[in-house]
Amino acid sequence: MANPNSLLNGQAQAIDPVVGPDGTVYMKAAGVAINVTGAGDDSAPQLVTDFTILTGTGHQVVAAGPARTQLRSASTPCHRVTVTATIGNTHTLYVGLSNVTADANNTTGGFQLQPGEHWTFGIDDVNKVYIHGTVGEGASFAYEL
Fold first, then answer.
1. What angle do CA 88, 76, 130 make, to 5 degrees?
2. Is 91 found in the same domain as 39?
3. pLDDT value, residue 12
4. How confident is the model at residue 36 (pLDDT cuts 50, 70, 90)?
C-alpha cells in the first residue's frame, strides 16, 4: 500500500501519515511510540511523537574574513541545529557545510541570514556546520538531540 499524502496540505503541514508493511498507519515523525486506544482500535502503537531535547548552545565568530568557520571543532552529535545571525552583524552571514561560500553559487552557496534571522535544520553533528562572512561577525546556535 502506498503512503498517503499529508492530511493537511499547504502551509504548516501538521499530519503526515505513513502506512507500514502490515497496513498500520503511523504518524511520520521520530520519537516515542504512544499507544492509541478508543474508537474500537486497541492495536499496536499508531501515534509517534516528535520531540528533541535542547542539548547545548554556543556562539561562533568568523575568525578570518571572509572565510569559513566551523561552529564547533569537536564532534558534537545532534539531530537538529538552529543558527541565529548575531543581531549586531552588519553583513549577510552564510550557513552551510565545509564548502560553504558567501555567494549564491548553486553548489556551495550558503543559506543567507541577515542580522537576527535564524534557520533550523536537521543534521547529525554540529561540527559539520560552518558560517562564512565578515571577520568578527558571527552567530549563536542551539543544538538538540
1. 40
2. no
3. 43
4. low
Q: Which of 144, 143, 126, 140 is nearest to 58 (CA)?
A: 140
Tell me: pLDDT of 62 over 80: yes
pLDDT value for 19:
65
Q: Could you give the percent of the chain with pLDDT greater than 70?
A: 65
**Secondary structure in 3-state letters for the chain:** CCCCCCCCCCCCCCCCEEECCCCCEEECCCCCEECCCCCCCCCCCCEECCCCCEEEEEEEECCCCCEEEECCCCCCECCEEEEEECCCCCCCEEEECCCCECCCCCCCECEEECCCCEEEEECCEHHHCEEEECCCCEEEEEEEC
Residue 73 structural domain: 54-144
Supply the pLDDT for residue 111.
Answer: 92
Neighbours of 75 (CB within 10 A): 10
Phi, psi of 128 (to 5 degrees): -90, -5
70 plus 135 within the same structural domain: yes
Asked if the model's pLDDT at residue 104 lies above 60, the reply is yes
